[in-house]
Amino acid sequence: MIDNSNNSSLFTLEVERATYQKKYSDLVSKALVAIQSEIKIENKKISIKVCDSMESTKINKKFRRKNQPTNVLAFPSNGDKFSLPNHLGDILICDEVVLDEATYLGIDFDERFTHMVIHGILHLLGYLHNNESTARIMETLESKIMSKLGYSDPYLKY
User: What is the CATH number of domain 9-156?
Assistant: First the structure.
């Protein structure tokens, strides 16, 4: 059992469909506990927004020049004078894409959503998957964290 009672101060969560606020908040809290068992995130805030495909497409097009929705986007704080103090960064998760992916992969939505939270937070912490070496490091850590939550290795599904 994972205790997530002390994690609500580590993140802010904005959900377009308010009926999912508690569910998503619980999933984020549990993911943070599991991440912190591997990597310490001290005195850092994370902002997470859950959006629809239309907003994801708009932001993905603006920042990555891809005119399509994506599952998760991470925007690390660069620590300059314009950054908020102790702000690790922002994450955007498109729950519609996550649902499509979960259905395609034959896994539970909560499992896929949690994986995207972990993936996004690791990006904020500086982990990348832009080549085979960095991808292996990040994917191994993601798999370890997912296992702590009782989920299967997300990279065995692909």
Answer: 3.40.390.30
